[in-house]
Write a structure and sequence with these properties.
130 residues, alpha+beta, Alpha-Beta Plaits, 3-stranded antiparallel β-sheet, 2 helices, disordered C terminus
Length: 130
């Protein structure tokens, strides 16, 4: 089954950031109870900031998102704009690649094919945080 990945990004008012995080955690509790099949959902918050990113991968099917079956998610979506400095913006994405360090493989994907490649043993990646 094809999947669809969406990132939703927004900035809350500074005084609403902690409340927004608490409301997002309630949504995760509800997702755990609902046990949605084929859905991956993450919420990220900018360190020391009030910018949020929601990343969802779900089946690409006609009709409403399976997330909308969860009352707490619908309530979160309905209330989030009232906490925002910037309205939420969503981006529908197409995967180009994926790296899983614990598996020492990376996957390149094109519109027509998916490839998995083994990384050399001496391959290293470094990242210097700002």
């Amino acid at each position: 089954m094809k999947s669809k990945t969406i990132i939703v990004q927004y900035q809350t008012r500074p005084e609403c950031a902690d409340e927004n995080e608490a409301q997002a955690i309630k949504v995760f509790d509800a997702f755990a109870r609902a046990s949605l099949k084929g859905v991956s959902y993450r919420t990220m918050r900018e360190v020391n900031g009030n910018r949020f990113f929601h990343i969802v991968t779900r089946p690409d099917v006609e009709g409403p998102s399976p997330l909308m079956q969860v009352d707490e998610f619908r309530e979160f979506v309905a209330a989030v704009r009232a906490r925002c400095d910037e309205a939420p913006v969503d981006f529908v994405l197409r995967q180009v690649g994926e790296y899983e360090g614990w598996a020492a493989t990376w996957k390149a994907q094109s519109k027509s094919q998916s490839k998995s490649r083994k990384l050399p043993r001496n391959c290293q990646f470094s990242f210097t945080p700002q």
